[in-house]
Amino acid sequence: MTNIFNNSLIVFVLSFSTLWFSAWFGASVLRKKLTLEEGVRDSFGVVQAATLTLLAIIIGFSFSMAVDRYNQRNNYEEGDGNAIGTEYAWADLLPAPDGAKVRALLREYFEQRLQFYKVRDRENLRQINARTAQLQIEMWAAVVTPATRQPT
């Protein structure tokens, strides 16, 4: 079962409509029923300014953290791609049948890593992590065997 709050468009529409209704209700209904005296209005203005300033700071920090996380994720993706590309080139150092096996495993590993960065479902993520770990074991075994035969 999927959570509706995992879809950013639905969250945006719900938040926007709720905030719009609240603003409309406060501006049209409550303004007619509640009036502030002049002394209270000045104090209310100060509290309102302070509250909006704090809200702006919270929003700024939230966006900053989101941008940092996005950049970190891009760096991890780039590092994965570079490491896989390097290993693919190093597969040429192995004997031909072992090199072909390692290249095939690296292609499958690459597909799993792409899925890792695209998937949102936790169950699929667990399966991808398990398959990735299995592929790492298979690649290590494929490299260790020829390396022990020819230690040079």
Q: Can you describe what's shown?
A:
With 152 residues, the chain is an all-alpha fold. 86% of the residues lie in helices and 0% in strands. Helix 2 packs antiparallel against helix 3 and helix 3 runs antiparallel to helix 4. The two termini are 54 Å apart.
Topology record:
Elements lengths: L7 H26 L4 H53 L5 H23 L3 H28 L3
Beginning-to-end CA distance, first to last residue: 54 Å
* Count of the separate structural domains: 2
Low-confidence stretches: none
Describe the biggest sheet? Answer: none
Global shape = elongated
| Number of helices, where a helix is a run of at least 4 consecutive DSSP H or I residues | 4
Residues in helix, %: over 70%
Find the structural class using helix and strand composition. Answer: mainly alpha
Q: What is the beta-strand fraction? A: under 5%
- The Cα radius of gyration reads 28 Å
Number of strands: 0
Average pLDDT, all residues: 89
- SSE run: HHHH
